[in-house]
Amino acid sequence: AINEILEVLSVLIEEKHQNIELDIPMDIKDIFADRHALEQVLMNIISNAIKYSDDSSTIKISATSNYFNVKIVVEDHGIGIPEEDIDRIFERFYRVEKSRSRAQGGTGLGLSIARELILSMNGDIKLESKLNEGTKVTLTFETA
Ligand code: ATP
Ligand code: MG
Questions:
Q1: Which residue ranges have their beta carbon within 6 Å of ligand 1?
Q2: What compartments host this protein (predicted)?
């Protein structure tokens, strides 16, 4: 179940000294998805939230569900993404270099792989971001 997956991931995050806030109802519906693929997707999204924000800032992960859908939201208060780059963020190898102060490693593949996996599971991904304010990624899946 999604609770288990997110709890395991949040322990990993806490080991990196980042504050993580989990908000998942006990009765969250199961997701129609391959567990391994779902873990990979969440790991990608959450590791971006970690990588592109300060260790002292809080990352919020919340999930809600209704009869049809499960929605997972990962929100950070990090460096954000310039508006002109947002449309290209899911392209392979695309990385925002402008106004990135810290040298952050990465291939620029994380989001494109995540998106492909999500689409293959009949899900959807949406990213909203404001430069210097933070980023919000919303994942939507069908219930099992
Ligand atoms: P990889 O995931 O392959 O290690 P990456 O993190 O650079 O490398 P993506 O995950 O595809 O690649 O993200 C693409 C780009 O989008 C990043 O280089 C970064 O500039 C920007 N980005 C993604 N997530 C965030 C976020 N939460 N906050 C700020 N910028 C982000
Ligand atoms: Mg990444």
A1: 48-49, 52, 76, 78-81, 89, 94-96, 106-112, 135
A2: Membrane
CA distance 113 to 129: 19
User: Is 89 within 8 Å of 127 (Cβ atoms)?
Assistant: yes
Per the CB < 8 A criterion, the answer to whether 38 and 121 are in contact is yes
ipTM over 0.90: yes
Condensed to tens digits (0 to 9), the pLDDT of residues 45-99 reads: 998 998 899 888 999 999 999 999 999 999 999 999 999 999 999 999 898 875 5
- By most ligand atoms within 8 Å of CB, the mutation choice from 94, 111, 127, 128 for ligand 1 is 111
